[in-house]
Amino acid sequence: MRVLVTGGAGFIGSAVVDLLVAEGCEVVVLDALLPAAHRCRPGYLNAGAEYVWADLCDPGQVASCARGVDAVSHQAAMVGLGVDFGDAPAYVHHNDLATAVLLRALAASGFDGRLVLAGSMVVYGEGGYRCPVHGPVRPGPRSPDRLRSGRFEPECPLCGRDLCPEPVPEAAAADPRSVYAATKLHQEHLCACFAREAGAPLTVLRYHNVYGPRMPAGTPYAGVAAIFRSALEAGEPPRVFEDGAQRRDFVHVDDVARANLLALREESGESHVLNIASGAPATVLEMATALANASNRAAAAPLVTGEFRLGDVRHVFASVERAEEVLGFRASIRLPEGMRQFATATLR
Questions:
Q1: Nearest residue to 110 via CA among 67, 72, 73
Q2: DSSP state of 159
Q3: What is the β-pairing status of strands 247-248 and 282-283?
Q4: N or C: which end of the chain has fewer CB within 10 A?
């Protein structure tokens, strides 16, 4: 099987490439090496893959890479919450326009194989919630006044009571709360349009909070686990926003790569949207504490600051039954083990 992996030099993409090469696939990688994610060309590139260094918005390069492939793993994206709204054009360029250029090239080549899109849980906005009186509800954005007063839990839109979080299923309505989230949802829409017109099966893998080796560090766009590790390495405590009780699902990159392999090999011809997560949610403070304990550094104890960001959501963690049903996927690396590995893993 010849597979095109966009963003295949990146954190998740390179893990996918390594697994595909190990499985005997012919792999071509197209990556722009964005400075926000790469200080230089990585030293971990897989010698068994072919690499093309180009912007995914370059029609000629994309058309050349797309020609003759049996499947596509679309991992390329500008990630993170962003610095400010000035990042909006860059997110649209690298996420949405780049996806449109890729899909146009695939359509022109007559591609009808499996397209796997690296989606994100950020499309949900807040996760699943239940009001003790009104049952399942969808809260609106938390107000700045509520956050400033330290009332971090979302409130029921009907009665104002604090809500209880629940796993969010794939069928939940999308509610993106940041530019990044909006562009990730648009990627899904573009790919779904292509899949219908081309008769190509599409699998959207909505990643939850991925961590592991090769994670970008030292950048405003880095993930929370990398930010916490950078603080520990600088002899500072990880700064945990709000009260630290916000819940996420932290999933190891090796599990995510395995989910991609299973998706690329799936032969039903049907399209799917699947949460990819560990199935064992934890609070941000629990994650920071596990990492701090594993780091064995003097300034390790996390500092709960009460700070907040308006673009953040309170709780979002996954219902994982569909991924197991469709792909036979179940995460194998639990948070304590993963954090012990991550404490000394090579980042970039």
A1: 67
A2: T
A3: antiparallel
A4: N
